[in-house]
Amino acid sequence: MATATTPVGQTQPSKGDPPPVVFDFSQPPAIEGFTPLPRLKEETFKDKFIRKTKENPFVPIGCLGTAGALIYGLSAFRRGKTRQSQLLMRARIFAQGFTVVAIIVGVAATALKPKQ
């Protein structure tokens, strides 16, 4: 019968020994030639909204225009002013198109902007 042997100079770990520590989770890994960037301050929703609005102010303007036309158009429909309601629904479609174009232009401008 064949028995399992270990190479000379190596010991086979027994079942009672803990496994060797491969990685210390309390410290980041040490990678040669790599220095991680320092963590920036956590950005709140308000801060992010203000930053994004400054980067592309036409998107919130288009969203407000879309919502305004929708609400005003629905109220006109409720009052029975069908002609005004139709015109406001067309204005809503125009505002939605404006918002989509603003998003696309903003994404393109961000993609073409050189990295800092």
From TrEMBL:
The keyword Transmembrane applies. Residues 1-14 have a biased composition (Polar residues). Residues 1-21 are annotated as: Disordered. This is HIG1 domain family member 2A-like. Signal peptide: none annotated. One of its GO terms (biological process) is mitochondrial respirasome assembly. It is found in: Mitochondrion membrane. The chain crosses the membrane at residues 58-77, 89-112. The keyword Transmembrane applies.
